Amino acid sequence: MPGKMVVIFGASNILWIMFAASQAFKIETTPESKSLAQIGDSVSLTCSTTGSFPRDPEIQLSGPLEAGKPITVKCLVADVYPFDRLEIDLMKGDHLMKSQEFLEDADRKSLETKSLEVTFTPVIEDIGKVLVCRAKLHIDEMDSVLTEREAVKELQVYISPKNTVISVNPSTRLQEGGSVTMTCSSEGLPPPEIFWSKKLDNGNLQHLSGNATLTLIAMRMEDSGIYVCEGVNLIGKNRKEVELIVQEKPFTVEISPGPRIVAQIGDSVVLTCSVMGCESPSFSWRTQIDSPLSGKVRSEGTNSTLTLSPVSFENEHSYLCTVTCGRKKLEKGIQVELYSFPRDPEIEMRGVLVSESPITVSCKVSSVYPLDRLEIELLKGETVLENKEFLEDTDMKSLENKSLEATFIPTTEDTGKALVCQAKLHMDEMEFEPKQRQSTQTLYVNVAPRDTTVLVSPSSILEEGSSVNMTCLSHGLPAPKILWSRQLPNGELQPVSENATLTLISTKMEDSGVYVCEGINQAGRSRKEVELIIQATPKDIKLTAFPSESVKEGDTVIISCTCVNVPETWIILKKKAQTGDTVLKSIDGAYTIQKAQLKDAGVYECESKNKVGSQLRSLTLDVQGRENNKDYFSPELLMLYCASSLIIPAVGMIIYFARKANMKGSYSLVEAQKSKV
Questions:
Q1: Distant-in-sequence, close-in-space partners of 105: CB < 8 Å, separation ≥ 6
Q2: pLDDT of res. 17
Q3: How far is CA 120 from each of CA 49, 90, 92, 97, 126, rounded to the nearest angstrom?
């Protein structure tokens, strides 16, 4: 049973290790209880354990990392077994500082704590780098157990405070009542905290401030002494001393821009209080009536400014600047007066400037103050149209809009003249601001369109297919815009063109109608109409004989001439003969022959003409004589006669109405005249 012997031997080894390190291992076996196996079979026993490498290493420092001072780093691995398989690496960034393997042969079977130590001197460049302690347990059989662990610690390098510096503004020698600002800085990591103190006569320090800047105001002579600045961080401290000397000295005060200032509302006003003879004065501002200051004070050295921005009605006061230097005080005042005159006047016209039509012009001044100093004058060229002073007394402080109106009748001679609105604000103190503003507008007098005429070439009566140019002329200022329209049957106008010349090419009869030309500008409009007539030569003439062009003697024959789609057409019906043509008296182009005779046979001609041209049509009527005795009257002939007496008038009416339905325009029928052939 060799296979079985091997398995049992491996199990006994695991049990032996279990008893040696019972406090560090957890063992699980599979199967958990007794197992029966047939002799000769293979049996597998599984044993798993954890806890030989239970947690990550620890990185320990002997103290804070101070640049330039050695420090010891320890990498500690706790509760490891077997430690003769342990390897520890200590790295700083990518640099391996030390590596150690614990190869000693130990008979004892217990959990051990092993460590690795390295001493190094940190530098500034180490800031941000990391220390890595990596521990490895070389046990190849432990596939399911973590055999490598590591700890990471970011380096924080400290620098003890040094190079402590004090800056003093304006000086270490001060005038009594003045101010001084002392700023202290110190180098180190982490950045040192700044503490200000003053040395007392007994050598002790009196704490003053924990800010880098120490400002002392309204200094007295007893404020003289030694002031100490100390930079302190976790590593150490560094101090610097400065001596202040407070002296007493006479001084003078001046205020600018002067005892009086006139400022425009909305602007920024800066009042400056200056001190001479006092190095460190103390300033304060107030109004004479102790109202809110409503401004920003900035004091620096021997100057203090009061900025009023934007200046408003609440700033119209007398302001006092009080200066303290040592035990002395001086005060100066300045009067702030306000005005509002922000923009040029506005000229407005109520309507369009048309020659000979009255027009009202207004001149408006916006947001003006004080109102009782305002004067407005309106001029046309050199002529004064209107003038007004607003002298009403008002205690109310507000911005007002005032205007002046004038009405005049413009003429074409006014074109090019200047309309001037001049506004004056009578304030003598306004030395640096405009006391007068004005607006100018050049007059352009409009003339409504007039004398509108239309030129038609070649004529307003045209033959169909020809072209026509209709040119519209209209006079006015500015030059009128031309608009061509066509008048519809309902009286409305249909726009056609905006060109002065309207051209129609290859005209058709439907182009006939009334065309309207309008001259339009902003002053008005003027119109002219022209009627365009398009004519065509007669066409589609039909000359017929009913019931036939061949009839018997005694029959009734209707000769009819029709012409369609031709207006203003004359129809002349003639019977031609060698001795001369006879014009027949027709009704609506129809001529009726009652009881045709042989002499009625011959050539019949229809002439259709208008102002444009004419057309001819002809036919030959054949009248045959009777074959039997003319006294013979058969029943059949009687029936035919009766029928024809009803049919002929009906046919005539049919031809009449048919002709009416096919015609467009009208016919002028003439009576018998000699043909001009």
A1: 84
A2: 33
A3: 39, 12, 10, 9, 11
CA-wise closest residue to 536 among 468, 466, 489, 479: 466
Q: What is the mean pLDDT of residues 574-589?
A: 86
CA distance 280 to 302: 7
Q: Supply the pLDDT for residue 670.
A: 34
Phi, psi of 105 (to 5 degrees): -90, 115
Q: Is 8 a residue whose pLDDT tops 50?
A: no
**Distance (Å, whole) CA 334 – CA 272:** 10
DSSP character for 343? Answer: S
How confident is the model over 121-147, as pLDDT tens digits? 999 888 889 999 999 988 765 555 557
Domains in the chain, ordered, with CATH? Answer: 2-50 (no CATH), 58-155 (2.60.40.10), 159-247 (2.60.40.10), 252-339 (2.60.40.10), 346-439 (2.60.40.10), 447-535 (2.60.40.10), 542-669 (2.60.40.10)
In sequence order, the 6+-apart residues with CB closer than 8 A to the CB of 446 are 352, 353, 354, 355, 476, 477, 478, 521, 522, 523
Would you state the structure tokens that stand for residue 298, as one six-digit string?
């900035």
pLDDT at residue 318 tops 90: yes
Return the residue matching tokens 């150690």: 100
Q: Using alpha carbons only, give the angle 671, 673, 677 rounded to the nearest 5 degrees.
A: 140
Structure token digits, residue 320: 């006092």
Are residues 336 and 263 in contact, defined by beta-carbon separation less than 8 angstroms? yes
Q: Give ∠ CA 218-219-223 in degrees, rounded to 5.
A: 155
Residue 66 CB contacts under 8 Å (≥ 6 apart), including other chains: 122, 157, 158, 159, 160, 235
